[in-house]
Amino acid sequence: MPRPVKVPAAHQVLAILSHLGRQAGPVPAAAVARELGLPRSTTYQLLATLAESGFVVHLADDRRYSLGVAAYELATGYARQAPLQRVSRVPLARLVDRTGHTAHLAVMHGREVIYLIEERAPGRPPLVTDVGVRLPSHLTASGRAMLAALPAAQVRALFPTQDAFVTRHDRGPRSLSALRRLLVEARRWGHAVEDGEVTPGFATVAVAVLDHTGHPVASVAVTVPQAEFRPDLRGAVVAEVGRTARAIAAQISGHTPQPGPTTAATSGVSRPTSSGSAGATPRPGV
């Protein structure tokens, strides 16, 4: 297969669109140039071209730029085509076959996670993680795995006050500092865990799926009855969830999946030495 030819202008255009998509509101061109390390003249020229094609809107009175209607059409096209679900369904089914437990795929939406796929293992009871269900991200293993891959500032923006920390069954982090400790642990271990905070009697292990930039686009998780969540099973489930997350990351990014994290038995529990999530190097977190 021929090596792809790099086109600097194309990379710069995509970097600008990605940057605008991550902002809370319209931003000045100078800020775009500064954040992306681009010459100002190049930034203005590219923004003008994007504005002509409708991907960017120039708010002249504010001297700022935001995403345009064409960018929205791309996003809605993505939602219609559901490539993430299409790519993930078979790997998730194989994950269920290998572990014997229910698996699910979730994405972040604000402070919540939305479950896109649930592959229920034969003979296992239904869970609250059905397709379309939303849950607070800080309470779920899926949400914690993705939050652990986000920059600290973004996590703070998602959880600005105590009111953001809702609980279920009177369990879960109730402050940003408590959430930070969980996210540090998730990065250290290479996966996130939730133990009875969403549904009493069940524990969940999750690993984030990262795109080529290191951004968490989803998470893969497996839920196990607490009575069966022994150290040996936990290590096996962690390995399989990580393997599946890497496979999905390779599909969506076009990169060959990296080898799974090396594990070492300590007190009977496998400890991944990777720093958090599957598919790319995680961004600095909280």
From TrEMBL:
Which PROSITE patterns does its entry note?
A: HTH_ICLR, ICLR_ED
Boundaries of every HTH iclR-type domain copy: 7-69
Transmembrane residues, as ranges?
A: none
Record keywords: DNA-binding, Transcription, Transcription regulation
| Residue ranges of every copy of the IclR-ED domain listed in the record | 70-254
Listed SUPFAM superfamilies: GAF domain-like, Winged helix' DNA-binding domain
The record's section on Pfam families has:
HTH_IclR (PF09339), IclR_C (PF01614)
Show the ranges annotated as biased composition (Polar residues): 253-278
For region Disordered, the annotated ranges are 250-286
Mind telling me what this protein is named?
IclR family transcriptional regulator
Instruction: Report the source organism.
Output: Pseudonocardia zijingensis
